[in-house]
Amino acid sequence: MGAPKQKWTAEEEAALKAGVRKHGSGKWQTILRDPEFSNVLCSRSNVDLKDKWRNINVTLSGLGSREKARLALKRNPQIPKLDDKPSVVNHVRSDEDAVEDELVGTPSETVQVADSKKTYTRS
Q: What pTM was computed for the model?
């Protein structure tokens, strides 16, 4: 399936890095069409450039995608971990819940809750 893999040369890597500096990451077709880089990268496709750029960045950071995901979870603990255990959801009380609790056992009167269209009648 497809052409056999070709090892990237130092010249091709340098052209890719210079192309990204000039045009930005993700502008693979623009880099390939640029006369400054087209002669060096003539045997590469836009997908080749994208894959190589991703691999260069993973190598430079020293972390693979799994390690990056683990670090992201450690930095942002609000993101739930996916596992087979059912999660426990704590009920967060709203202002309306608090008003309902206050209404129990008090004399009859009508109360409008701020920022709400609900009206509560005390009995």
A: 0.50
Give the residue numbers spanning the domain of 122: 92-123
The answer as to whether 27 is a domain residue is yes
**Residue 20 maps to a domain:** yes
Assigned domain for 87 exists: no
- How far, in Å, are 1, 30, 60, 64, 74 from residue 4 at the CA level? 8, 24, 26, 25, 40
Name the domain count of the chain. Answer: 2
What number is the average pLDDT over the span 6-27? 94
88: left (phi over 0), alpha (psi -120 to 50) or beta: beta
pLDDT at 45: 94
- What is the largest distance, in Å, between two alpha-carbon atoms of the chain? 87
- Please give the span between the terminal C-alpha atoms of the chain, in angstroms, as a whole number: 77
- Specify the length of the chain in residues: 123
